[in-house]
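Aim 2 progress. For Flagellar protein FliL, the working sequence is reproduced below.
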Amino acid sequence: MKTKNIARSVAMVVSSSVLTAALVVAGTELINPASSTGETSRFSSLFAKKEQPTQTLYLEVKNQVVTLKGSSAKERYLLLDLAYVANSDEGLKATEHNLPKLKNVLVSMFSGMEYDAVRTMTIDDIHMQMMARYEGVFGTNQPFSDVMISKMVFQ
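Predicted structure tokens for this construct:
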């Protein structure tokens, strides 16, 4: 009887050791695959750094003049230099192709605004309004990732 218990105990220890070794090997392969193709496993890709876009391209649009409502009969103007930021050649081409639409969104945004109201806005406020309008027009198919205001002149 005593020998049977010892045999069972030895069998359990050996089988648990084999199972532990198999789990260690499998876990190591999941975390650090020994692949010559350079591919990563699903598990290790969870902890990998996400790749940022490799290139940043700009489409500059200079001297955009928009008429603003003045407090008197005198008209006021806003001159903007913009740079649309694209992350691929295709995005840059699509942004350039949609330039008339982009200009229309800009003009429609400012045409109903009072000069004094625009004058009190910060560049961040204007930027956020422009991006919200562009996202409203393009939705998820927006060909550029951002727009930068490089010059803003009031007259």
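The longest strand covers residues 57-68. This observation will guide construct design in the next reporting period.
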